[in-house]
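Here is an idea for our session: we take a single protein and study its fold together. Start from the sequence, derive the backbone structure tokens from it, and show both lines together. Once you have written the record down, we can walk along the chain together:
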Amino acid sequence: QVQLVESGGGLVQAGDSLRLSCAGSGRAFSTYAMGWFRQAPGKEREFVASIPWNGDSTYYVDSVKGRFTISRDNAKNTVYLQMNSLKPEDTAVYYCAARRGLIIVAGGWVDYWGQGTQVTVFS
């Protein structure tokens, strides 16, 4: 069992940066693949980024490549999403996700979800 708590969202101007954190707890947290999804009003939840349990690779949706960076610190049971050069279209509730398995992918299974943190970007 894993519990996930996101933090770090906020209201920022286009071009600014934010860093989201996802603090996890539970047995074998470090063995889970982790990821971030987001959901904008009126839209379906969208895959953003993911990282496997050993942190040796990262995956991103095309729209955030070069701007967002996912990382994890297993010693702290924490996953991060560094978001740079934010755009209004990045506005959404961002959710942390955990999955037993190699990696989280778009449309794939997720075992645990966080409550979400709001990111709002204005121009």
Remarks:
- The longest strand covers residues 92-100.
- The mean pLDDT is 94.
- The CA atoms of residues 3 and 25 lie 5 Å apart.
- The radius of gyration is 13 Å.
